[in-house]
Recover the amino acids of this structure.
């Protein structure tokens, strides 16, 4: 069953406004990309065919809704918002944004979002969605995403490289690979993408070193 077209359009319009209310395509693009990733992972038959596709699609959009209280949320060592905080606020924002929405659908989406950060969610949709969200931190896409996050807080290339070095030093990626995925094929995908990220970082270092004559 496809998500209602009017509902999809309404939530996409909400995503076209940034944190400060100004027009921006970034959030809508991020939501669409996450949903495409979920659809691809579903095509790998990692879960059974009887999944709640409507709830998964709407959850993808909800996770990208502008976090208007992001400054009040606790952040990790590397400036990221935890999956649990992100999912909880996404559920609250979705319900607040659709006061006249389908209550049963919104309840299913909220349950999916709140279950997603758990160590071993019972819902296969929650496990797969969590893996899809965690996968976005890996690879060249992850490097670009981190650069965007840093830029929003006044950081630049130096901070990007420093952050990468700290992640490697503290074994951050090893922990993420070990604990961040429920499905082994997705873990292997993340492992491959991590090599892409390493190459991207090394290219940045090489170009900066060339400009400095070192």
């Amino acid at each position: 069953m496809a998500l209602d077209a009017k509902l999809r359009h309404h939530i996409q319009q909400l995503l076209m406004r940034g944190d400060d209310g100004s027009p921006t395509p970034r959030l809508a693009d991020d939501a669409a990309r996450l949903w495409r990733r979920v659809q691809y992972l579903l095509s790998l038959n990692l879960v059974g065919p009887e999944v709640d596709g409507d709830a998964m699609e709407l959850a993808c959009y909800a996770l990208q809704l502008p976090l208007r209280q992001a400054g009040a949320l606790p952040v990790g060592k590397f400036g990221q918002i935890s999956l649990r905080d992100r999912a909880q606020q996404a559920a609250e924002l979705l319900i607040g944004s659709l006061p006249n929405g389908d209550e049963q659908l919104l309840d299913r989406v909220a349950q999916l979002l709140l279950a997603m950060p758990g160590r071993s969610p019972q819902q296969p949709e929650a496990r797969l969605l969590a893996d899809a969200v965690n996968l976005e931190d890996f690879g060249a896409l992850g490097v670009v995403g981190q650069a965007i996050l840093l830029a929003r807080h006044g950081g630049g290339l130096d901070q990007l490289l420093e952050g990468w070095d700290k992640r490697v030093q503290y074994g951050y990626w090893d922990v993420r690979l070990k604990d961040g995925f429920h499905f082994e094929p997705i873990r292997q995908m993340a492992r491959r993408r991590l090599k892409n990220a390493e190459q991207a970082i090394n290219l940045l270092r090489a170009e900066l070193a060339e400009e400095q004559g070192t």
About this structure: The two ends are 58 Å apart (CA to CA). Residues 137-214 form one domain. Residues 69-75 have pLDDT under 50 and may be disordered.
